[in-house]
Amino acid sequence: MAGPTFVRACGLSELEEDTPKRVELDGTPVSVVRTEGEVFAINDICSHANVSLSEGEVEDCQIECWLHGSAFDLRTGKPSGLPATRPVPVYPVKIEGDDVLVSLTQEN
Predict the structure, then answer these.
(1) What pLDDT tens digit does each residue of the chain (108 aa) get?
(2) Parallel, antiparallel, or unpaired: how do β-strands 21-25 and 62-64 relate?
(3) How far apart are alpha carbons 35 and 107 in whole angstroms?
(4) Distance between alpha carbon 48 and the CA centroid of its chain, in Å?
(5) How many separate helices (H) and strands (E) can be counted in the chain?
(6) What's the whole-model pTM score?
(7) How many CA atoms lie less than 13 Å away from 80 in the CB half-sphere?
(8) In terms of DSSP bridges, do strands 58-59 and 62-64 run parallel, antiparallel, or are they unpaired?
(9) Residue 55: other Cβ atoms inside 10 A
(10) Neighbours of 11 (CB within 10 A)
């Protein structure tokens, strides 16, 4: 059985620390975040309100939705506070040179 298929999301050099970057992969909006020495990819749409998470703040390995303040763990996608109660998908990430590769195969 084949493993996940990775596609280039952006260049590592394009990512600023704690500043989400919105990309679209095969029609799926993804927020790519470089924080605490790692790179994460999380679905860019808040599970509570249909807004872009990449417009929010990143702190303590979480991304906060700018509209109502729910924060999602970049490792698991789980919300850490109301009003969101459902997790958002997170995706596997690989770094090859300056390329950030993301697989839309969900980890959670």
Answers:
(1) 567 899 999 999 999 999 999 999 999 999 999 999 999 999 999 999 999 999 999 999 999 999 999 999 999 999 998 999 999 999 999 999 999 999 997 554
(2) unpaired
(3) 19
(4) 16
(5) 0, 10
(6) 0.93
(7) 14
(8) antiparallel
(9) 16
(10) 12
